[in-house]
Amino acid sequence: MAAEKTKAKAKTKAKSKVKKTLVIVESPAKAKTIEKYLGKKYMVRASMGHLRDLPKSQFGIDVENDFAPKYINIRGKGDLIKALKKDAKNADKVYLASDPDREGEAIAWHLSFILGLNPEEDCRIVFNEITKPAIQEAVKHPRGINIDQVDAQQARRMLDRIVGYKLSPLLWRKVRKGLSAGRVQSVTVKLICDREKEIQAFESVEYWTVGMKLRKDKSAMFDAELTHVDGEKLDLHDEKNTTALVEDFQKQQLIVDKVKKSERKRKPAAPFTTSSLQQDAARKLGFTSRKTMMLAQQLYEGIELGRHGATGLITYMRTDSTRLSDVALNDARAFIGEQFGEDYLPAKANVYVTGKKAQDAHEAIRPTDVNITPESVEKYLNKDQLKLYTLIWQRFTASQMVPAVYDTMSIQIKAGSRYQAKAAGSKLKFAGFTAVYAGAETTKKEKDVLLPDLAEGDELNIAKMLPQQHFTEPPPRYNDASLVKTLEEKEIGRPSTYAPIIETIQARGYVQRIDKHFQPTELGFVVVDMLKEYFKDIVDVKFTADLENELDEIAEGKVEKNHLLKEFYDPFAVTLEKADEAIGHVELPEEVSDVPCDICGRMMVVKQGRYGKFLACPGFPDCRNTKPLLVDTGVKCPKCGGSIVERKSHRGRKFYGCKNYPECDYTTWDQPLQEKCPTCGAFMLKHHYKNGRGLTYCSNEACETRIDHPINKELEKMRQRAEAKKAKEAEAAAQAEKESKTKKGKKK
């Protein structure tokens, strides 16, 4: 009996000594999801991104010694590195499973150095989606670290360091402290500045169009437009000539000259790439690039789906490819056939051509499982996660459906011998992919435009003439969608870098976001003009794009890393030296406010800080007084009669409050308007939705116009959200206090 017990103990000891396989990923959320799929023989840990980097306090590149980088362990990650080393020592194997891109390859390379692994041995695993089959397949096929990809990442990092650490101090000396220049960010600011100059130089021209409402006998009215006069395109530039022409047109007999009926097909768009996802999320959901990428990361790494546990919902979100795997295509076709019927299924899978410059390393962004519909996970996702997942799911599903079919009708109309007009109509004949997704450029489904049944020779009657004055408009300022689209078209940077670039140029005060559009500041113009004069290449679009292509060639093993760095650095260093001698100190013009300093009485000036504009005393450093810059709305406070001013929350969100705060606590998220309510005379408020739509309503809650007004539901939602947030914060505070007491008790 004793012998049996001894054997049992020996078995237990042997079991406990069985070593596990260590898998290192980048984030804890991903680690949790993957651990569920791999089982007990594996332990999954997170590196929390990079563990080694160039030092912040020094240049960190030995230019004289073949651009040798000086890498150090990142401050604050010592305990994590110690824990990973311990786990690696106790593991049978170590797999490095950082993200499947160049940045991820570099993280794996740094990890191999820290943990003493041979980068050429099979220590690297990659997967495009966090699903059980993908993870298990990746573990079966480990490989060595791709040094060419690592070199491409190192070259990019060192180029950015050279520009940032050599050029930024020049800006500090010549303009002001705290500025920075970047290889890609400077070109982005230049694009925004160039567009602003176009707008400022634009001269508007008046022109007129002549629309009309027509009908045949007693048929329904339809719209038409005058297109030609005496065989020439309509060209009207003043009201006098337009009025004379309209009067003459009304005297003519209108006859249907030609009728053309046809069928038009509209094909579905390709599944999302990183760039097209950022554009569509900005256009349809009103998301910034940063928000889109943050939400996509959460969906990729895994969301808790009840009893199913943490589940990755989408494939890797940094990709420039529209390619789809055979498994994904087969699943999509099976789902479409079952849910929509065979009529919605093309004869063979739709394949989309990826651009010539695409690296095509990963699939397009798609759901990991098309059967996980947005409706089925709605209760597990927050509002924004659900919106983005719905967009990705719809775009992918629609990409494998048949085109939408429209019956179209266009008619040409003759009016006497001088005039030609046209009318066009269309009707949806078969929904096709639009049954799922409205389309890349549209936010809503197209409405039918119906024309009556017309034939050549039919006489038409004029119900109403609609001459309209217009003015040519300057090119629009960039918003998130159009800026991302331009950066991609001009091959500046990579889509995965667009979000941090846009954040950086705003944080530095070069650009400000006003009504979802980017406008350069005075500082932005000054810095760009200086760079254009002395560092043409840094802000040259073609040079930056060519450099990006050379980085791609390093990743493909066609170009040597140090060759590219030397080609860039040598002329750059010479230019830097000349510029330092030639450029004098640049004085930025100061905007003087009408607000006196409380301490010394000087009139305060407007300064641009990291979080926007503020007021500062010009007597600095003798007087260091600062104040928030309050923009007066011109509306009086309903509580105390003071001015309502524009303020910003600690998170940078705009709101409106009484200038007499804290004596008066009136605040509102909605924009006060100087317009008065026609019913009660109170000032109006404008509620701004995230998609850009605005809703105007009376600020007086007792006003009869507020009865059954759609704003009531919206305000109630906002109130409930605020209460839920407050309750959550209180719960978190209580939990933290409880944990603190428990810790104190344990110490005692």
TrEMBL record:
GO molecular function: DNA binding; DNA topoisomerase type I (single strand cut, ATP-independent) activity; zinc ion binding
GO cellular component: chromosome
Residue numbers spanned by region Disordered: 718-748
Region (Interaction with DNA): 180-185
SUPFAM superfamilies the UniProt entry points to: Prokaryotic type I DNA topoisomerase, Zinc beta-ribbon
Record keywords, A-Z: DNA-binding, Isomerase, Magnesium, Metal-binding, Topoisomerase, Zinc, Zinc-finger
Catalytic residues of the enzyme: 316 (o-(5'-phospho-dna)-tyrosine intermediate)
Bias-annotated ranges (Basic and acidic residues): 718-742
InterPro entries reported in the protein's UniProt record: Topo_IA, Topo_IA_2, Topo_IA_AS, Topo_IA_cen, Topo_IA_cen_sub1, Topo_IA_cen_sub2, Topo_IA_cen_sub3, Topo_IA_core_domain
Reaction equation(s) it catalyzes: ATP-independent breakage of single-stranded DNA, followed by passage and rejoining
Statement: the UniProt record of this protein carries the keyword Transmembrane helix: no
Ranges where the Toprim domain occurs: 20-130
Subunit record text: Monomer.
Family the UniProt entry places it in: Belongs to the type IA topoisomerase family.
PANTHER family: DNA TOPOISOMERASE, DNA TOPOISOMERASE, TYPE IA, CORE
Entry protein name: DNA topoisomerase 1
Native species: Selenomonas ruminantium
UniProt lineage: Bacteria, Bacillati, Bacillota, Negativicutes, Selenomonadales
Gene: topA
